[in-house]
Structure formats: structure tokens, C-alpha cells
Write a structure and sequence with these properties.
mainly beta, 1 helix, 39% strand, 10% helix, eleven-stranded antiparallel sheet
């Protein structure tokens, strides 16, 4: 093609005159790679597939339910309801030691804890000459503390009287005896006796002796304890008691 400006005939790939640079005609069409568009589409699809696989793996895991439940707010109760009562009650109630839900004391049984009055006391006692006499009486206060201390208070005097053949005997105990105790297999086991007081014996002939109260060791006593009454037994002994106080 001849340039209308300079008359030259040569043009470059852009359609410009090789001599003066005048555009003489449209540049020849650029040939595109026939694989360009399919390649781009394939790359996009591949990226989307990879992303989908990653998301699936992250959310499915091993098939277990890893969903974490959202925390729920604690129920709100109004003031004055039982749910809002806080702290222990002031002082134990009289039924604390005998209620089914009472926790065991260190001594082994919550029922026994409290103050008990002997209403009937039957026991075989031995006189200085070896005579065994079955005597009867009552009136001793037996106090059992929560921490395992038993205290026998003879108060104004425990009188135990009985007869052997034609002879009458009467024992009089004053003061107190204390023990440590525990309950095992339905029996009270006493230990560490301490005594303070006097012991007197009378018979038909009058006064026999007066001596210091003996801190005698007691054999285990079988325990039958209820809300208001208790029974203690061992060889040659039977004591019926009633509760006068729930706890010490």
C-alpha cells in the first residue's frame, strides 16, 4: 500500500508508514492461543474443587458429633424462695441427730449423740465377800458427745438395790465417770475411764464400806437406739433410757 503523504509503500505490523509513520491501514488481527480460555476455566474449576474438599474435611471430621452446645444461663429465682437460702441454720434442731439424713458422727452413730436419762437400770454387782446381787434402780444421766466422749452423771446419787436370799444390799454411787467411746457393729465400745466421786455399800447390818468411785472398764454394750428411747445390754446388764436432749 502506498503512503498518501510520502509516497512510500512499506508499512509495519501496526499499519504505520515505514518512512513518515502515518497510519495507512488497520493493523493485522492478532492471533489468540486457542487453549487460553479453556485453560483459565479449568484452573478456576480446579481451585473451587480443592476449596470444597478442604471445607468438607474440616467440617466432617471422623463422623463424631463435635458440636459444642451454647452455654445456657442459670435459672433465676426470686429472693425468699428455698433455692436462694444460703448458709447453715442457726443452731441444730432437736431432730438433727436422729433424722435419716443426719451424717454419722466420728464416734460411729449419730443416733446416740445427746443426753439420756436411765429410767430402769438392772445389773449384777459383786459385793466384797463375792456375793453376786441383781440390783435395780435408775436416774443416771448418760451424755454422749458428737466427738466420742461419754459422761455418766450420777447427779444426786444413783441407788441400786437388790436382795440375795434373805439379805438386802444397796449400792450408792455419787459423782461421775467419763469414757471415750465408739460404735461398731451395733455395740458401744468404752475406753479410757476417768472417775470422780464415791461408792457406798449397805446391807442388813448397815454400812459396809465407803470408797472412791472406781473407774471400772466396761464391756461392750449392745445398742438399740431410737428417736426417743435407747436400750443398752450386756452380760448381766439391761438399761432403758429416754432422750432428754438431742445434742451436746
Amino acid at each position: 500500500m502506498r503512503c498518501p503523504r510520502c509516497g512510500a509503500t512499506g508499512v509495519d505490523a501496526q499499519g504505520l508508514c515505514l518512512r513518515c509513520g502515518l497510519r495507512i491501514g488497520a493493523p493485522p488481527p492478532v492471533q489468540r492461543n486457542p487453549l487460553l480460555i479453556p485453560g483459565i476455566a479449568f484452573a478456576v474449576v480446579a481451585v473451587l474443587m480443592i476449596a470444597a474438599v478442604i471445607v468438607y474435611a474440616a467440617t466432617s471430621g471422623d463422623g463424631s458429633d463435635d458440636t459444642v452446645a451454647a452455654p445456657t444461663a442459670a435459672p433465676v429465682t426470686t429472693a425468699g424462695t428455698p433455692e436462694t437460702t444460703v448458709g447453715p441454720s442457726v443452731g441444730p434442731s432437736p431432730s438433727d441427730s436422729t433424722s435419716p439424713g443426719a451424717s454419722p458422727s466420728p464416734s460411729g452413730d449419730p443416733c446416740i449423740v445427746g443426753v439420756w436419762l436411765e429410767e430402769r437400770h438392772d445389773e449384777d454387782l459383786t459385793t466384797p465377800d463375792g456375793t453376786v446381787v441383781t440390783v435395780h434402780g435408775g436416774g443416771t444421766f448418760q451424755r454422749y458427745s458428737y466427738d466420742g466422749v461419754a459422761f455418766f452423771d450420777y447427779d444426786n446419787g444413783l441407788r441400786l438395790a437388790g436382795t440375795k436370799g434373805s439379805s438386802r444390799y444397796e449400792f450408792l454411787f455419787t459423782g461421775f465417770i467419763s469414757y471415750t467411746y465408739r460404735v461398731e457393729n451395733g455395740e458401744i465400745i468404752y475406753s479410757n475411764p476417768r472417775a470422780q466421786g464415791t461408792e457406798l455399800l449397805y446391807n442388813d447390818n448397815g454400812h459396809v464400806y465407803t470408797r472412791n468411785l472406781s473407774a471400772r472398764n466396761l464391756p461392750p454394750r449392745k445398742l438399740n437406739c431410737g428417736n426417743v428411747a435407747m436400750n443398752l445390754t450386756s452380760a448381766g446388764l439391761n438399761i432403758d433410757l429416754k432422750r432428754t436432749s438431742a445434742r451436746q
